[in-house]
From TrEMBL:
Gene that this sequence comes from: murD
Domain Mur ligase C-terminal: 311-424
NCBIfam families recorded: murD (TIGR01087)
Keywords: ATP-binding, Cell cycle, Cell division, Cell shape, Cell wall biogenesis/degradation, Cytoplasm, Ligase, Nucleotide-binding, Peptidoglycan synthesis
Record function comment: Cell wall formation. Catalyzes the addition of glutamate to the nucleotide precursor UDP-N-acetylmuramoyl-L-alanine (UMA).
Name of the protein this chain belongs to: UDP-N-acetylmuramoylalanine--D-glutamate ligase
Length: 447
């Protein structure tokens, strides 16, 4: 027990409140501090559990008493309170790092700039279908710490952001998956791609020869970042450009997975998730399944029947022959590129929000090919106008999901697709990307 040991938790969202519960269970004296307002349901949980907390301030004297600080992934190292904590020599860790100390479960850790929520959900779906006692956590669902405190799973599938990985030190993924690395959150990494790449590759830290690292051999930043490094884990790459053994590759229209088990093959036309990016996602999940020696018929059935997560290329409905798709989770340019790449009709594209220093050049060719009009949804749309005014005939500004949906509907004709895939964060007009997606779906239903 850790009686009389103080632990401070910064941020009272899902991860912070879950960490607080686990820390209390482990005998710590817990103090939760949130610089903003705490959501009502989280506040009630803390009150019900008798955990001390504060909101809309950080009482430094209380925080600096801690033997360790668990911080929300959203708090940057440049925050004044974090600087003071580190100057005081107090370790700062993530909720994932903390929770990992108190479970013997095996871990599948999945990271990447794009596709990690889909791949994490798909991998969990496959493992659960195969009868494994498995939990789903990380950037998705109930916090890892809360589940460690309240459940007894043999396996966890964790979606891990770079922000989480930055504050993980002793934690180890038994199976680590890195989907891709594209520019995102560079404001947190001194605008240096090498720093961001190094953060993503922390998924491999502490791995041994008994572990597995699955990665995309077609991803330039990943392969560049891996050069010169040695990896103790078994490497299982996947590619749609070349044949790879062991690993996964594309043979005509068939995915081939070859680990220590027999070959697994499946036509990409039978996958529940369509589009080039989802071939990669399905390959990554499929390799995990074969590493665990799951039955091929179970894997095939799971890959064919999986339903995608909310807010990721989610079909909302069809009105007057116009399809509406909610891809609000596309908070960076690369996600929007993947969404456009999978479109087979003319598109009215809804873009915009908080620009994180985006480079829109990679979208230009697809926008010229597929997009007939752009509806901007944000407080400041100037950079979108500058980027695309020569590529489409119509760019209009809106400042609410309802107006954006109505405007896009009027600009579209029968057979077109209205695609909300913003390429930007949502915090200028919405609470988060879920709120943006929910408001868009509600607006479509009102049309």
């Amino acid at each position: 027990m850790n009686t009389n040991k103080h632990i401070a938790i910064l941020g009272a969202g899902e991860s912070g409140v879950g960490a607080a519960y686990l820390a209390q269970q482990q005998g710590y004296d817990v103090f939760v501090s949130d610089f903003g307002a705490i959501a009502g349901h989280y506040k009630k949980q803390l009150q019900d559990w008798g955990i001390r907390f504060e909101e809309q301030q950080h009482t430094e004297a209380e925080i600096l008493k801690a033997v360790e600080v668990i911080k929300s992934p959203g708090i940057p190292d440049t925050a004044p309170v974090i600087k003071k904590i580190k100057e005081s020599g107090i370790p700062v860790i993530s909720e994932i790092e903390f929770a990992g100390r108190y479970t013997d479960a095996k871990i599948v850790g999945i990271t990447g700039s794009n596709g990690k929520t889909t791949t994490t959900s798909l991998t969990y779906f496959i493992l659960k279908n195969a009868g494994l006692n498995v939990g789903l956590a990380g950037n998705i669902g109930k916090s890892f710490a809360y589940q460690v405190a309240t459940e007894k799973f043999d396996w966890y599938v964790l979606e891990l952001s770079s922000f989480m990985l930055d504050d993980m030190f002793s934690f180890k993924a038994d199976i680590g998956v890195l989907l891709n690395i594209t520019p995102d959150h560079l404001d947190r990494y001194d605008y240096k791609m090498d720093n961001y790449t190094a953060s993503k590759l922390r998924i491999t830290q502490n791995q041994t020869a008994d572990d597995v690292f699955i990665y995309c051999a077609d991803d330039a930043e990943t392969t560049k970042g891996m050069q010169g490094n040695t990896y103790k884990a078994q490497l299982l790459p996947f590619s749609i450009e070349k044949q790879i053994t062991p690993g996964a590759y594309l043979d005509n229209d068939n995915i081939v997975i070859n680990t220590t088990q027999e070959h697994f093959t499946m036509s990409i036309n039978d996958l529940a998730l369509q589009g080039k990016h989802n071939i990669y996602n399905s390959m990554a999940s499929g390799i995990v399944a074969k590493v665990l020696e799951l039955r091929s018929d179970t894997l095939r059935d799971s890959l064919a029947t999986f339903k995608n997560i909310e807010h990721r290329l989610e079909f909302v409905g069809k009105i007057s022959g116009i399809s509406f798709i909610n891809d609000s989770k596309a908070t960076n340019v690369n996600s929007t590129w993947y969404a456009l790449e999978s479109m087979t009709s003319d598109v009215v594209l809804i873009l915009g929000g908080v620009d994180k220093g985006n480079d829109y050049n990679m979208l230009k060719d697809l926008i010229k090919q597929k997009v007939k009009a752009i509806v901007c949804l944000g407080k400041d749309n100037q950079r979108l106008h500058e980027a695309f005014e020569d590529d489409v005939d119509i760019i209009v500004n809106t400042s609410s999901a309802a107006t954006a949906a109505q405007t896009a509907y009027h600009l579209a004709t029968k057979g077109d697709t209205v695609l909300l895939s913003p390429a930007c964060a949502s915090f200028d007009l919405f609470k988060n990307y879920e709120d943006r997606g929910d408001q868009f779906k509600a607006a479509v239903k009102e049309l």
